[in-house]
Specification:
It is built from six helices and eleven strands. By secondary structure, it is α/β, with parallel strands linked by helices.
């Protein structure tokens, strides 16, 4: 594959990427990874394996120490600061630590993602209520983010990430604070985005999200890809669920 440009069906392309933090912490080492448009990829591994760093490199929150990162046609290492907003319009990021505006309402936190790209007020209102309904948060519309439980904050972060129907969604432990029913709602939202052609990368410890799916699963260990693999059911493609039934998770 040429390092000049990726094929049109490739939306994320990493070639021999490393990230070293001072003084000598090798968070990512010599990773090569290609993700096609519309693909769902699960990133697994123990805490500290490099999952979050990988997502931060893809979203240009970090620059690689070595190697090439191409995302939606942007060379991350060469992307000037003034043009980062062009990349970010294509990416929705659901952070593990949420990064909500604590003194703003739930609706405000979701709307801000749409306001920065000048969506009409009518669209913002409709889209916000639609997402809150899908994630069982309508009653929290006017509640300040700082008054929410961690599980509720997590759902608001996810709603904000997908509000603009971005080409790429990066989700860092998106179900870590959710019970089984609420996890199911989040998974269904990702399923809907996937049907619309969104590329989704999910960093997760929750094996129930990927154990019985035919989507690609990549395990990171000590900053390296251990062995990409995929598990599939012994059934026809039409019968393969995009996401499996979900096991119980900690209550929100």
């Amino acid at each position: 594959m040429s390092q000049e440009t990726a094929p049109p069906d490739v939306i994320i392309d990493l070639i021999k990427v490393s990230k070293v933090y001072p003084p000598d912490v090798h968070a990512i080492s010599d990773i090569s990874l290609t993700v096609n448009r519309g693909e769902i990829v699960f990133l697994t591994g123990m805490s500290g394996a490099g999952k979050t760093t990988l997502l931060r490199l893809i979203s240009r929150m970090e620059k690689p120490t070595k190697g090439m990162v191409d995302v939606a046609g942007f060379d991350i290492a060469k992307l000037p600061q003034r043009n980062i907003h062009l990349l970010r319009r294509k990416i929705g990021m659901a952070y593990q630590d949420f990064k909500l505006l604590p003194n703003r309402t739930v609706a405000d936190n979701i709307a801000i993602a749409m306001e920065v790209v000048y969506r009409p007020k009518s669209f913002i209102e409709k889209r916000t209520r639609e997402l809150l309904d899908q994630l069982d948060l309508v009653r929290k519309y006017a509640t300040r983010a700082e008054e929410l439980s961690r599980g509720e904050q997590q759902r608001v972060s996810i709603a904000r990430a997908v509000a603009n129907s971005p080409e790429i969604v990066l989700a860092d432990e998106p179900t870590g604070n959710l019970d089984a029913e609420t996890t199911d709602r989040v998974v269904n939202l990702f399923h809907q985005l996937h049907r619309q052609g969104t590329t989704i990368l999910i960093a997760t410890h929750d094996k129930s999200l990927y154990q019985q799916t035919n989507h690609r699963v990549i395990e990171l260990r000590f900053g390296r890809i251990r062995a990409p693999h995929a598990e599939s059911f012994e059934q026809n493609d039409e019968e393969k669920p995009t996401f499996p039934a979900l096991a119980s998770a900690p209550e929100a």
